[in-house]
Amino acid sequence: MHAKQLHEISLSEFVRPTCKPRHGELQSFLSLDSIGDKVALRGRHEDFLFAPCSRQTRADVLVKLPAPTQSMMQAVTAVPAMATSIIQAALPRIWTVVQPFLDPFSDEKEGDKETGWCKFIPRVLRVFYWSDVVTVATVAHSLYYVCDVPLRTWLIGGLLLGFPVTDLVHRVVMKDDPRTKVVRFTIKKIRGSADPDNFKLDTVVLYNRCGGAIHRSLVDERHEGNYWFVEIRDGPELVTAYQIVTHRIEGPECDPSSWVVEGSVDGVTWYMMDECSSESLPRQRETASQQFDDLMHLPDAQAAFRQGFLAEVAACAGSFAWLILGTSWVSAGTEACVDSAPYLWYWCYFLVVVLWSFLGTVTIGLITCAVAMIIVGGKT
After folding, report:
1. Whole domain around residue 263: which residue ranges?
2. Which residue ranges run through the membrane (predicted)?
3. Are residues 192 and 278 in the same domain?
4. What does the alpha-carbon distance between residue 320 and residue 322 come to, in Å, rounded to a whole number?
5. Which of 90, 157, 335, 380 has the fewest C-beta atoms under 10 angstroms from its C-beta?
6. Is there a single domain that holds both residue 257 and residue 270?
7. What is Dmax (Cα atoms) for the chain?
8. Whole-angstrom distance, CA of residue 75 vs CA of residue 66
9. Are 309 and 291 in a shared domain?
């Protein structure tokens, strides 16, 4: 409604009743003495109380009230869309904050496709992580419950024999493990016997400790003089092999024929990884060479692996002994802790059953595979 029309409406028009009060009918009804006369006027009395106002009067009032504008309706309908967009924009940031706590072993990296056992390791670690979370919650919940059997001690010991011991073994391995963050290729000669600074490559493919290729999107490469640098974004990694991919445009005369490969963690201190001379790369363009896997630092990596393996065997032996002790405690707590600390006892019982079932299944599977290999080998 325009401002001029609103100005013309007086206050009395808003507050005045839309139906005229029937004062005469009310007075006549109250002044009657006989019941019959009152009954006769009952119909008019009901009309006085409940009769609707005329359509014309209601229409006059509705005309005077301001109607909602189109812009107001658009603003109201836009609220759900705005809320949805805000939630969609906030969810990725919230997930980025909580992901290290909910999924610390996420392996969803672009192009990082692990093979073999390396593909299942993060999934198994997630199961152990959430099992430890439930264990911590169970111990905290049962602090004020009475249990004569040291089941809490067994759970806490199991926690310490889990990720803390694994981290200790990892530190033992990484202490002497020749990991690399930056790989430097120093080109000594090229196929055309020209200046080594004129060499051309398309890319260098590095392979990690699991034998999987590190995707090109996870490394940064640059060409400086007769150097070719490959930097791993995710941090130091054990490089077990590499391949050289020829340039997609330049001719074979620009392919390297002799080079030296060095590795470094900080880009300052370098150690020798490989040295090749008079190598012949494929003449086809944008073609990968053979895998160069006879690297100089791999014996040191194998020695570090043996140390870690021995430490892991010792940790597994201790964990197995702790499992046997915990099984005896759970059995002893069948009568002492089932009623006094039910959540504590049932969780320990569940862990014991699952662990022994897993160990039994793995043992039977290994025995079956060994027997099958012997039988098949004897027939061949």
Report:
1. 182-296
2. 309-332, 344-376
3. yes
4. 5
5. 380
6. yes
7. 134
8. 18
9. no
Per-position pLDDT tens, the chain of length 380: 444 444 444 444 444 444 444 445 545 545 545 555 545 545 554 554 445 544 444 444 444 445 555 566 666 677 777 777 787 787 777 767 766 666 666 655 444 455 556 667 777 888 888 899 999 999 999 988 888 889 999 999 999 999 899 888 888 888 888 899 999 999 999 987 788 999 999 999 999 988 889 999 999 999 999 999 999 998 899 999 999 999 999 989 999 999 999 999 988 999 999 999 989 899 999 999 999 999 999 999 888 888 889 999 999 999 999 999 999 999 998 888 888 889 999 999 999 999 999 999 999 999 999 998 888 876 65
Q: Where are the beta strands (DSSP E) in the chain?
A: 182-190, 201-207, 219-224, 227-232, 241-246, 256-264, 271-276
> Dihedral through CA 222, CA 224, CA 226, CA 231, nearest 10?
-40
77 domain residue, yes or no: no
Residues 6+ apart with CB under 8 A from 315: 161, 165, 166, 169
Residue type at position 248: R
Of 296, 331, 360, the residue at which a domain comes to its end is 296
Does one domain contain both 188 and 329? no
Residue 297 is encoded by which pair of tokens?
A: 């630092």
Contact yes or no for 221/204 (Cβ under 8 A): yes
Task: Give the count of domains, the chain.
Answer: 3
Cα–chain-centroid distance for residue 80?
28
**Residues 140, 54 share a domain:** no
Structure tokens at 71: 């812009």
